[in-house]
Amino acid sequence: MPLKLKRGAFPLPSLALCAALALAATSGGCILTTDLPDPALDIPAAYKSASGAADTKPPTLDWWRGFRSQELTVLMEEAQTVNLDIAAAVARIRQADALAQTAGAALLPNVTGSFSGSRSRSSSTTGTITSATPITGRGEVTNHTASLSASYEIDFWGKNRDALLAAEETANANRFDRDVVALTTLASVANAYFNVVAAQERIRIATRNIASAQRIYDAIKARVDAGTGSDLDLAQQESLLANQKAAVPPLRQALAENANILATLVARPPERVQLAGGSLGGIAIPRVTPGIPSDLLTQRPDIRRQENQLASATANVGSARAQFFPSIQLTGQGGYQSAALAALFTPQSAFFNVAAGLTQPIFDAGRIQANFDLQQARQDELLQTYRKTVVSAFADVNTALSTLKQANERLRLQRIVVAASRRAFELSERQLGAGTADIVTVLNTQLTLFQAEDSLAQFQLARLLAVVSLYQALGGGWSPRTEGPANAL
Questions:
Q1: How far apart are CA 127 and CA 130, in angstroms?
Q2: In Å, how far from its chain's centre is CA 329?
Q3: SS3 labels along 280-336
């Protein structure tokens, strides 16, 4: 029963869903037009936070190379081949393919072959002897039988075809699920690596600040020893120095934690992962363009996964509807039977029988109707999930674009703060050496500089994480692979 789509049934931007459901309809035996849900998606013409750049290319497959970090590239490529979550997702694909093959078996005849031989002895003076049961000697009976039997259900209403289609769409959904897992894994690798580099950077900043605080402490102590300084000034500087030293252990802990996360992502013990790291300033910031919103329908694997799940549910509705109609079963058996093995495959030893039957449900206490209602409800649930996934995808991109924009602006302003704070601290340190500086001013300027430099490193990290989030929101350079399960039939 061919599918006839109603004109205007779907909005133009939802062509990806239309294609998936059209494939489901044309491959099935009888999916009615009323089974096809209308996604009713409101696709915006542009992202709210987009810059309006003319270059709207989607991210490349190896998007992480834009950061120009060789160590990150090695980790990314290794994670794609050894990550355990990705390996588990691949195993789920094989499971789904096997289920699709099982569903496809119903569309082919079931053929079985058998061969048997028997020999028995009975009393020669009892029993009934007929020409059909030759008896030799003292009541010995020999019989050889070779036969083939076949049964086949005519899929007139498309029940089995729709069941197969549902299984195939589920298998494809598992393929997209693998891509979702891979995208999440790669984003996690990038985030963990950038956190490692940021922890290293903040430890270096803290070490420099400790050295600066130690110089100030030594200068104040010299003044106290000379009788020109107070113990209060020395105690305040000692407190600031101790605070700077106390900030280092949490940073080392963060460094170790993120290194362990990276080790898990690449399926290696932490002892086997050696990270050189680097500096945040040495990591390039790639330019990411979002493209147009409708691109997300094909760029994001989670949306494609929901499309396939919805197509599977639609096929299940058609299969459930077909259960209301009669089923036609064909059976047949043929073979050879003889008393002597040498005469088994002679024409006169052949036999066969063929039968056909029709079964029509009459009363099943509402089981078929309940199953049909169940499949429709599942289809509606997946339709709403699909809509939410698309809407959430648009929100993800807008949030990532806004976050990146604000991160860039915040970083620009923080660099001004650091430059001004460094000048103030250098001036106060020179005045302290000349004996003309106010201790309170020195304490304030160095504390302001220490905090400004640490905040700058955190803002640099935030910008890198915002870029990764934008890549992930856009589908992460994912390339659609829509191949179905192999040898389903």
A1: 10
A2: 42
A3: HHHCCCCCCCCCCHHHHHHHCHHHHHHHHHHHHHHHHHHHHHHCCCCEEEEEEEEEE
134 contact partners, CB below 8 Å, separation of at least 6: 141, 142, 339
Cα(158)–Cα(146) distance, rounded to whole angstroms?
Answer: 34
Instruction: Round the average pLDDT of the chain to a whole number and report it.
Output: 81
Alpha carbons 167 and 312: distance in angstroms, whole number = 7
**What is the CB neighbour count within 10 angstroms for residue 439?**
19
Helix, strand, coil share of the chain (percent; to 5): 65, 10, 25
- Tell me how crowded residue 153 is: count the other CB atoms within 10 A of its CB: 17
Across 397-424, average pLDDT:
94
**Does 70 have pLDDT greater than 70?**
yes
Note the pLDDT tens digit of each residue in 424-455: 989 988 888 777 777 888 888 989 999 999 99
State the pLDDT confidence band at 483, using cuts at 50, 70 and 90.
Answer: very low
| Contact status, residue 100 vs residue 488, Cβ threshold 8 Å | yes
Closest to 233 measured CA to CA, from 440, 448, 441 = 440
Residue range 253-282: average pLDDT? 92
What pLDDT score was predicted for residue 363? 78
Write the DSSP string, 396-419. Answer: HHHHHHHHHHHHHHHHHHHHHHHH
How far is it, in rounded angstroms, from Cα 35 to Cα 376?
8
Sign of CA dihedral 124, 129, 135, 140: negative
Instruction: For CA atoms 483, 176, 93, 77, give the dihedral sign.
Output: positive
DSSP 8-state assignment for residue 133:
S
Give mean pLDDT, residues 23-36: 48
Other beta carbons within 10 angstroms of residue 210's beta carbon come to: 18
Q: What percent of the chain has pLDDT over 90?
A: 36
Which among 210, 203, 205, 201 is positioned nearest to 242, based on CA atoms? Answer: 210
- Asked if 262 and 193 count as a contact pair (C-beta separation under 8 A), the reply is yes
Q: Which helix (H) or strand (E) holds 239?
A: helix 231-246
Pull the structure tokens for residue 141.
């009976």
State the Cα–Cα distance between residues 437 and 448, nearest whole angstrom.
16
